[in-house]
Design goal:
The complex is a heterotrimer of chains A (336), B (358) and C (269). Chain A has one domain (2-322). Chain A contains 14 helices and no strands. Helix content of chain A is 71%, strand content 0%. Chain B is 73% helix and 2% strand. The two termini of chain B are 14 Å apart. In chain B, α3 (46-72) crosses α8 and α3 (46-72) packs across α12 (267-280). Chain B has a domain at 44-265. By secondary structure, chain B is mostly helical. Chain B is built from 15 helices and four strands. Chain C has a domain at 5-93 and 184-264: Rossmann fold (3-Layer(aba) Sandwich), CATH 3.40.50. Helices cover 37% and strands 25% of the residues of chain C. Chain C has helices at 56-63, 86-91, 109-115, 125-130, 134-153, 168-181, 198-215, 226-232, 250-254, 257-264, and strands at residues 5-6, 12-13, 16-27, 30-41, 45-49, 71-76, 79-80, 94-96, 186-190, 218-222, 235-240, 243-248. In chain C, strands 8-9-10-5-11-12 form a six-stranded mixed β-sheet, with helices on both faces. A four-stranded antiparallel β-sheet of chain C has the order 4-3-6-7, covered by helices on one side. A two-stranded antiparallel ribbon of chain C has the order 1-2. Chain C starts with a strand and ends in a 5-residue tail after the last helix. The chains are: A mainly alpha (336), B mainly alpha (358), C alpha/beta (269). Chains in contact: A-B, A-C, B-C. At the A-B interface, α3, α5, α11 and α14 of A face α6, α12 and α14 of B.
């Protein structure tokens, strides 16, 4: 039983780390939602797109090579150079800013004053569009992130816990890095929105579009900024997840992991995104650990596995029925 | 000039509210039905049946169902794939448990079972609104697919984890199973499509349809008029899930014959049906058909042109398919949030006055 | 006055349709309505007036069950009303319009008003699916009543127009039509003339008086325009900061010192 407890704690800690990774995606959602009331389903695809672009630029891939080859019958694949990581990152960030600008210019501008649900569906369209474009540009084969990110078992924790409990915990360095990055991002974002004038404008827009407009804040430039920041967060999330499981289509599905986090934490709260992510990360790992264990099977007569697929959603659903605004969301008062 | 209402007098309120107020429309509708029932079954071949016609009919039912829930009642659902899976597995269990039961009854019963499941997952809709609800319906999607994947009873403990449909006949013609003919399958689906479209039209034109739309447009005002929000939403969930369940049962039993739940009824299918009603037209029966037709035909066409005629690699056409679908979704929402069906209405309105618009 | 009274223009007003007894409504620490009592009598036009934020709309919301008061009770036709959902109250025969128009934007004028008939339509879902027979018959019967409302409000021309495309004044009229179609025992009007020009106000006043006159409908209305209120209503409740400061005929209210203070301001020096 003591062993079981230790395994359980290890699962919980790993869940916590995974939860932070979910939060990383959820963060981008919260930013865009606060600034424009848009529930951006494309956030996950933005992570995929960012990671794809980074790998593509760094390894000197020719964009749209497949399409060009198909049309002109050529066979080009690669420019034949490799860019240093820092240059590739800067170029990718530039690309994400360009993307933010295009989203504002060609999509959001035309959808002002539409209902939230229409905007939501538009971002589902955007997600499909970008996924197709990403595949066309860089191909859909699984790619590897070539950045010096620490990975593998953390030996310090392993030996420390071995000394303490007689059992070494497996904690991945990548997860630790991601957690540190997430903390840095949250702190930077908080400072930025509290103390810079752009940040103040951003909060003003989040509060009331009309009022912000009337004091001379340009809604459209704020949106470009917000989508750029969200693009940057997506890039970070894409790189971290890409380092974990390779850059491939399934990366875009992390959106689906971030959604319950948001429902739990509230769509408008940055701390909510972080804490919601942790609750879900820990919850799904521990739940899986419990229901798949042999003693659960002995007690109940059956076991379950692969519950991570739905646990977060059911948890969020049950939670929402009792508290529709999420953990940290503002209470909705209905008026006539 | 021919297309107008002059001389087509309405003498009663019933005539004023009929489905096709114009004579020309009525004739066109009857002609279409005649062709669909009397001509197509005799000229149909396997390729057309399995690539275009049968999928079109089945997806039409699914998108009619989702349109009732989303287009008419305003409750966005991303659980369509999961509910189709319920229909499919219900029909499988019914077919294998009651070998003598008529296949039509099995399909309708599968719809009814799905309706019950839909009501359960619709319960939170009283408290949760808008995209919160949309995300909540994902819970249904993931949970149901997982359930059918993991609980062996649902696939009768088969080693592959797949379900496959036994042969069942109606009026002496096989409609399910590997040896069923294309025209029998087609007619079976067509009967259901016509019947269900008729039901959908009737439900949306009267008291219940108006209460759905009232909830969609302004739920508080609707409640103060006397519409019970929970009952109304649950009715929409039930009717919608019934349609979707029938579509799932047909998809499995008649069309595919064998199903792996994750592939056939995954989240992508939920999005596909949502796209059908966005492009076709939210809150429109005709739009459900247009959207289904478009999204069934477009990939086939794309593949034929690009891979077949131009000789491009097939992955290119699937990438382009994503780009085109995504682009069209955004374009429709920007230009005409009520979809192609609305464009069609506007065109008809102009045609009535043509060539003297003033 | 326990059994009604006769108005100066000779209409006989009946017994109490609705009686509010010591109603108090709080939102957290904010008191929106404080210990208010008044009644609404059969056949009368009852106005609730007061400055912004006085709690008038909250009072209507209490009447049709959207808010539940913490204290006090409501008597409907002499019986204490249990706490109910708004749709149950609608079934008892209370209909209303809204301050900010609350029409169903995706539907035509006709469908909006037909929705008002919801409580009077009874066919079940199976008949609705089949349509031919009971459902179609019921639809036609109710359509006839709705057409009468449409004639009454003179909106025949916009019968099939989506309401979103209508100008403001007409939308207000359609909303009144939707409430009238329910043939309510008590009709609540939340600022029926807000944002209208003089002509539209005159039209609306005429409709309100006609509704009361032709159908004998009891009406309670909230209005800002004092002139209109004093002209068309039989009795007036005046609210300020959630409290009742006056109640009586327009003349009585006009000469009430508390009311004058609330409207013109009082010298606290």
């Amino acid at each position: 039983m003591y062993d079981q407890l230790l395994y359980g704690i290890e699962a919980a800690i790993n869940g916590l780390m995974t939860g932070v990774m979910y939060s990383l995606v959820a963060l981008g959602f919260v930013l865009i939602f606060k600034a424009s009331g848009i529930f951006n389903y494309a956030q996950g695809v933005m992570a995929l797109f960012g990671a794809l672009t980074l790998v593509g630029i760094q390894s000197g891939q020719v964009p749209f090579a497949g399409l060009i080859n198909a049309i002109f019958g050529t066979n080009i694949q690669n420019f034949g150079w490799e860019l240093p990581a820092i240059a590739a990152i800067i170029l990718t960030i530039a690309m994400m800013i360009l993307f933010a600008w295009m989203v504002e210019r060609y999509l959001l501008k035309h959808l002002i004053n539409q209902e939230p649900i229409i905007l939501f569906m538009a971002t589902i369209g955007l997600a499909y569009f970008m996924e197709g474009v990403g595949d066309l540009m860089w191909g859909s084969d699984i790619k590897k992130i070539d950045l010096p990110i620490p990975q593998g078992i953390n030996n310090t924790i392993d030996s420390l816990t071995y000394d303490w409990f007689g059992y070494g915990f497996y904690i991945d360095n990548l997860d630790i890095t991601a957690s540190v990055l997430a903390i840095i991002l949250v702190v930077t974002l908080t400072i930025f929105s509290q103390y810079s004038s752009t940040g103040r404008a951003l909060r003003a827009v989040a509060d009331d579009h009309q009022a912000a407009l009337s004091v001379g804040i340009s809604l459209r430039s704020i949106w470009v900024i917000v989508w750029s920041i969200a693009g940057f967060i997506a890039l970070v999330a894409g790189v971290m997840w890409g380092a974990k499981s390779g850059v491939q289509f399934s990366l875009s599905l992390i959106t689906l992991k971030a959604l319950p986090v948001l429902m739990l934490g509230g769509f408008t709260s940055i701390p909510g995104a972080i804490i919601g992510g942790m609750i879900i990360g820990v919850g799904e790992k521990v739940f899986e650990f419990v229901v798949s264990s042999s003693w659960f099977g002995d007690a109940m007569g059956f076991t379950m596995n692969a519950t991570e697929n739905w646990f977060a959603y059911v948890l969020a659903l049950v939670f929402l029925v009792f508290r529709p605004q999420g953990l940290f969301g503002e209470k909705i008062i209905e008026r006539v | 000039m021919l297309y107008r209402e002059a001389g087509d007098y309405k003498k009663s309120y019933a005539e004023d509210s009929q489905t096709f107020p114009l004579k020309l429309d009525r004739w066109a509708y009857y002609a279409l039905l005649a062709v669909a029932f009397l001509v197509v079954p005799f000229v149909i071949n396997d390729y057309w049946a399995s690539a275009v016609l049968i999928p079109f009919l089945i997806w039409s039912i699914a998108s009619l169902g989702l349109n009732i829930l989303t287009g008419y009642c305003g409750q966005v659902s991303l659980g369509t794939g999961g509910f189709m899976a319920v229909g499919a597995y219900a029909s499988y269990k019914l077919m294998t448990s009651f070998p003598d039961l008529n296949i039509m009854i099995i399909v309708l019963l599968s719809g009814a079972i799905t309706a019950a499941v839909g009501v359960v997952f619709g319960l939170p809709s009283l408290r949760i609104k808008g995209f919160y609800l949309a995300v909540a319906t994902l819970a249904a999607q993931f949970f149901l697919v997982w359930l059918f994947n993991k609980v062996e009873w649902f696939y009768n403990y088969s080693a592959s984890g797949q379900i496959s449909s036994p042969t069942r006949s109606m009026f002496g013609f096989e409609v399910t199973g590997p040896t069923a003919s294309a025209s029998a399958k087609y007619l079976f689906c067509l009967v259901l499509v016509v019947g269900l479209a008729w039901v959908a039209r009737n439900l949306t034109r009267g008291r219940i349809g108006r209460s759905w739309m009232a909830i969609r447009d302004m739920d508080i005002a609707a409640e103060i008029i006397g519409v019970n929000p929970l009952k109304t939403k649950l009715t929409a969930f039930a009717v919608s899930s019934f349609f979707v369940g029938v579509a799932g049962a047909l998809m499995f039993a008649v069309y595919l014959g064998a199903v792996d739940v994750g592939d056939t009824f995954g989240i992508q299918k939920s999005f596909l049906v949502l796209f059908m009603i966005i492009i076709g037209g939210l809150g429109s029966i005709l739009g459900s058909f247009i959207g289904a037709a478009f999204l069934v035909v477009m990939p086939v066409l794309l593949k034929n042109v690009m891979v077949g005629m131009l000789g491009w690699p097939s992955d290119m056409s699937s990438y382009l398919e994503l780009v085109i679908i995504g682009f069209l979704i955004m374009l429709t929402l920007i230009l005409e949030p009520h979809g192609v069906a609305q464009l069609w209405r506007v065109t008809k309105q102009k045609l009535r006055l043509w060539p003297f618009p003033h | 006055m326990s059994d009604g009274y006769v108005t100066p223009d000779g209409r006989t007003i009946g017994g109490k349709v609705l009686e509010m007894q010591n109603i108090t409504l709080r939102f957290g620490g904010v008191v929106a309505i404080k210990d208010i009592s008044f009644d609404i009598r059969e056949g009368e036009i009852r106005a609730i007036i007061g400055p912004n934020g006085a709690g008038k709309s909250s009072m209507l919301n209490v009447i049709n069950g959207f808010y539940h008061p913490q204290e006090g009770q409501i008597l409907f036709h002499g019986e204490v009303r249990k706490p109910m959902k708004p749709y149950q109250i609608a079934k008892q025969g209370i209909a209303r319009t809204f301050q900010n128009i609350a029409l169903f934007k995706g539907m035509s004028t006709l469908d909006n008003i037909m929705t008002g008939r919801f409580n009077h339509m009874k066919t079940n879902i199976i008949s609705q699916m089949i349509w031919q027979g009971p459902a179609a018959r019921e639809e036609a019967e109710n359509r006839e009543i709705v057409e009468k409302v449409i004639d009454f409000l003179e909106i025949q021309a916009i019968r099939k127009t989506p309401v979103g495309a209508l100008p403001y004044g007409l939308q207000k009229r359609v909303e009144l039509g939707r409430a009238l179609a329910a043939q309510p025992k008590l009709l609540l009007l939340d600022e029926p003339m807000a944002g209208m020009n003089v002509e539209e106000k005159e039209d609306m006043s005429r409709f309100i008086l006609d509704v009361n006159d032709e159908f004998g409908t009891t009406i309670a209305l909230i209005e800002h325009d004092m002139g209109v209120v004093m002209d068309i209503s039989d009795r007036v409740v005046v609210m300020d900061y959630g409290k009742k400061i006056g109640d009586g005929t327009p003349d009585e209210v006009r000469n009430n010192q508390a009311v004058i203070d609330a409207y013109l301001g009082v010298d606290h020096g």
